[in-house]
């Protein structure tokens, strides 16, 4: 599910910490930032969702109001969409991109075992 670890499905998103996702999944230890620049993929996901929402709402509004299109309200709503949708979808686009990355660069059992051992050492205070 979107917003959860793509490896073990344990929840990661907390509304208290909307903009700060953990570096690793607390259950399986999967790194959520697998490499430098990994945030670019989640930006593409967020950008795509924002563009789709913008085209759907504004396109529908323009088609519904032709020939007298209310320009200023459309600009206001468009601005709200462009600012609001990325904020609302931030944690979901991050975890969705991790899932896509896992599909593209398969994670094998050795990787999972390595993450699990890292997590268990943290739990024991090492």
- Rg, alpha carbons: 19 Å
Contiguous runs where pLDDT drops below 50 for at least 5 residues = none
- Give the topology string: H per helix, E per strand: HHH
Largest sheet: none
- Shape, per Cα inertia axes: elongated
Beta strands, count: 0
- State the end-to-end distance: 32 Å
Number of helices: 3
Quaternary structure type: single chain
Topology (SSEs and partners):
Blueprint lengths: L38 H27 L5 H34 L4 H15 L3
Helix pairs in contact: 1-2
Summarize, please.
With 126 residues, this protein is mainly α.
Provide key terms for this protein.
126 residues, mainly alpha, elongated
Describe the structure.
By secondary structure, this protein is an all-alpha fold. Helices cover 60% and strands 0% of the residues. The chain has 3 helices and no strands. The radius of gyration is 19 Å and the shape is elongated. The chain starts with 38 loop residues before the first helix and ends with a helix. The relative contact order is 0.19. The model has no long low-confidence stretch (mean pLDDT 80).
């Amino acid at each position: 599910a979107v917003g959860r670890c793509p490896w073990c499905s344990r929840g990661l998103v907390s509304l208290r910490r909307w903009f700060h996702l953990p570096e690793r999944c607390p259950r399986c230890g999967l790194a959520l930032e697998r490499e430098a620049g990994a945030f670019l993929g989640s930006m593409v996901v967020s950008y795509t969702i924002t563009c789709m929402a913008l085209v759907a709402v504004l396109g529908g509004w323009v088609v519904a109001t032709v020939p007298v299109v209310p320009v200023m309200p459309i600009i206001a709503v468009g601005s709200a969409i462009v600012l609001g949708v990325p904020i609302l979808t931030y944690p979901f686009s991050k975890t969705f991109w991790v899932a896509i990355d896992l599909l593209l660069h398969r994670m094998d059992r050795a990787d999972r075992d390595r993450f699990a051992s890292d997590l268990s050492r943290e739990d024991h205070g090492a």
